[in-house]
Predict the 3D structure of the following.
Amino acid sequence: MKKIIFSALSAFMLVIMVLSSCDVQRSNTTGWNYNDPDYGGFEYVDYYGQETGPGLVLIEGGTFSMGRVEQDVLYDWNNVPRRVTVSSFYMDETEIRNVDYREYMYWLKRVFATYPEVEKQARPDTNVWRSKLAYNEPYVELYLRHPAYQEYPVVGVSWVQADRYCVWRTDRVNEWILIREGLLYKDPNQVDAGNFSTDAYLANKFQEGAYRGPGIEDLDPNIDFRNVRMEDGILLPRYRLPTEAEWEFAALALIENHIDERVFHRKFFPWNGHYVRNDGQKEMGMIMANSIRGKGDMMGTAGYLNDNADITAPVDAYWPNDYGLYCMAGNVNEWVMDIYRPLTFEDMDEFRPFRGNEYRRKTLNSDGTIADKISEPQYNLTDIMYYMSKLDSVVRNMNPAEIALLDQIRTNLTVAKTKSDERKWEEVQIEIRKSVELLKSPAAEANIAPILLAEFSKLSVSMPGQLKDQRVTDEECFNRRNYNTSDNINFLDGDFESSTSYDSGTRAGHTSGKMYYQGNEAKFTPRGGNDMNSMINDRVRVYKGGSWNDRIYWMVPGTRRFLDETQARADLGFRCAMTRVGSPVGF
């Protein structure tokens, strides 16, 4: 009888242990419980997949033949076909609209009232609409601001401005997610360095009083609440510009053109067929995208407009491709992340190809902790010197006040360059701000002062509230196998080994011979001067897609062109992308 009772009790205890074990997750290597304060509180998150951010569409990745599918009519030989693989990622369903970009400028103006240059650096160049032999002044005045164009793609935005928009959008979306989850309070009155930054929040540098919110319960027995961590899977990865490979892959949308991995219909355009008219019964003969059909034909004949757009069109005005993306051909060209090189397709990796890596890290204090947030706008010394070197080659007939002003700015920048060589980053900013304050001063009786102030504002690289960052130093790279310098833009195409100075120059200084893309860094002297002799340098970025102002040829996704990252055009806009983490399609 005792044996029967003991066996029944043992069975009952076993059932209890099995049931209880269903609620307790344990480490496979230590046996310690996860998510248990009695065992230290290490947290294991049941992650069910990445949330799709506002405005995004999932692009399932895969392999494809990147590059030319048309004849190379320009004989550039810059897009020789190459098979590569692209990971899954997210991309904006449409191009960024005027209303989207005005929301960005409004936020900057409201939050950074103390630093008006922050909002000024974001303003699109509306003068891109001007043409010497056309009357386009109405677009200069109305296109960005008038509600009639609010659903149209923003233009006149440089690559640098588009990249900064991505940073801002990342912070606003993650701020919204935290507010939605009840982990952050709304604060429409945040100003200057008190604004929310994802990086500052993750580094516990965001301590803005009541706005901070209750946080999330911490299972560490010694801590009550904490900020959300990346390990929680709540915050989204960064919005960014797509790489050239990602953009081309998304534009082609081969997802519906294969059977068991065999692509049976190779595309010229984002739609099937080698023509640009719709072949469906309902809309047969309608132009598939906004472009120039022929010489002098921007929109067709009155009464039957072929694409119903004289310049740009609303961002969802035409048929989406098989990924659900609108206007991946025509309407406006689009910036991508890559630096342009003619031979990139020969050199690039087979997996996630990209040229333009410049590795950076957060700035650290002397004790190894992350430095505090930026309290004032930070300026890019290299960009300012580059601009000044270009300016010196075109200025004419300056008055004495202008000459004195430019000489003082050159002196300040020379000192700043010396401080930069010594890695005294704070002192670099002090010297640059001396020039900025000089331009703001009433004593600057020079017609060129407001022009320089506007250009310097465009060259601020970080908003107050963000964390400081810097290039990874060569000392941090020297013992690595996968890279040995932070700047890999010129790897295999423009670096020391790939240039004509390999036999005659010196690795450190390149004192003789000639580099392929000489002039990438402006050589600033007290009276200016530079050695720029190539349109291709470390500041030119790729753009793709064709536009309202292009012939059909440029709507082929494999075509590529380039432009200086600080320049803008009336037929050039952008859309954002985001990395897909984990499974390419979800489980």
Summary: The CA atoms of residues 331 and 547 lie 5 Å apart. The chain has a mean pLDDT of 86.
